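Re: folding output
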Amino acid sequence: MAGELGGGELEGKVAIITGASSGIGEAIARLLAREGARLTLAARRKERIEALARTLEEQGARVLAHPTDVAEQGQVEAMVKATMDAFGQVDILVNNAGIMPISPLVEAQVDDWSRMVDVNVKGVLFALGAVLPGMVGRGGGHVVNIGSLAGRRPFPGGTVYAATKFAVRALTAGMQLELSAAHGIRVTDVQPGVVETELMDHIPSEPIRQGFADGWRERRKLDPEDVARAVLFALSSPDRVNVNEILIRPTDQTT
């Protein structure tokens, strides 16, 4: 029913969410819409984000679905421009898009390594570069980077993926130093452990993929909604509060 959403913690805010077609990105979109934010959903899968946009609009949200490959700077800039045209501002950027085609280093899957850097690191930078002038001009904003527990420690087979998430952690820390006190832009790195998403489907190595599935068959993973709630906690904190890092593991995760 129209009118079900709105009136929440983020009423009047405009948020861009990359990787919004499934998993954590979709969960963040649903929660932020429920809290009153106007949204741009950015992802490569046009049909998925358009379907989500229709659902949220039926519930009273204002939503723009904009197909975007974050590894392509021109597409990211066009998406941000479309957001500005539709809503007039960008208050929140959630850099969620990411891929994880992990494999042992000795397999030298250089194309996969390159794509991870393009999406997981350069995608964050492209989005930041596109929204930053507006945030600086308005004297505020909030950038949330969805990092990973892997950004604190590598794991066998995931060395390059971990390197991209270490980069995100370093970027977030540097962004806080340069942007927060000087320009009122808050920054947060949310670092989930194992989450029930499609990310594991990216793993090209059958032994690694099957080993992970076997290892988690009897253990509880995080739900995407758990990560979304962590994001909302940071976003809805008072302006004087800058929640820089949130590390969130499943209770059943031993590492």
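--- second protein (sequence, then structure) ---
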Amino acid sequence: MGMTSASFFSPPRRRTVIFIVVIVALHYLALHWLTSQASRGLPAHEILHETSVALLPDTSAPPPLPPEAAPLPQPSLAPPPLPLLPPLPQASINTEAPPAPVVAAVAEDAPAVQEAASAVVAAAPAEPPAEPAAAPPTEPSPPAEPAAPRYKTSVPASAEFDMQLDRRDADGTKWTGVASMSWKNRGDSYRLNLEAGISMLITRINLLVMNSEGRIDNTGVVPITSTEKRKGRAQTATHFHPDDRTITFSASTASVPWQPGAQDKASVPFQLAAIGRGDVNQLAGNIDILVGEEKNATVFRFKLVGEEELDTRMGKLVTWHLSRPPKPGTYSSQLDIWLAPSLQWYPVQIRNTEANGAVTTQTVTQITVKDTP
């Protein structure tokens, strides 16, 4: 049974022939494209990669059209994807000095660099200089008073004093009392006691008790410790440290520089007596004495008022009147002391005038000299 031309070109066979022709045409085009790529000088692996990409079917594309309607494939001209490179190592900060060429380049343009650096320094806040370690905080001391001059002195002998106390209050009320002083000169040391109060029949009520003790040297009376007790108040103490050159107080934390000739309130009259005995001419000018009180120390400046005659129970006494007037900003009271040259310059009258007008006066009624220095 022979094959006829009609059976040979039957639809199935015709499709087969067309398919073979298409395949041959595709191979021809592929070989032609490979030849053209080789003439461009592409590497072999890129040529093979592009060839494989062109020949592999695209599974994501829609189904192929029938052979008779399918367009001829075009060679892909897109470059193949580059292979992935390993990650670059992380850059590290180089803290070393720049290499010589950079330094040389900067050196060549030194004026410009210097000008820019100056501008940066001017704009940047200055770093504060390192401060030395701070000392432990201490309570500030009051400003130092002018240094007291040294006087020629001769301390008077031991004696006991009986005194009359007259008081006039600010409202005009007057009352009287008694006072006593015990002065003991031991040659190189001393002890002083002062009591002032009111006599009540068989007893006495002390309103003020003061004690002072210390050394005696070429500067005169040198207090070491003094105490003060007022009625209704706690006792206070003032400590003098000549070796450490300080004065301290029980009623405050202040520390005042000590000066030669420094006194307490009780010893001041006897230091003035020692100055007058040393050289009377010293009393003609201002006499500055640093006096330690309850909480601080102040320079008392005494001035000679003049020679005065006092009428006392011991008779008329010729005295030298010294006065410390009020000092604004320091003390508001006035202190007056009368010294008797004929009685070893002992203080024979002491008066305190307060800012409110109250006046307290102690006047000697009897002096008992214990010995002669």
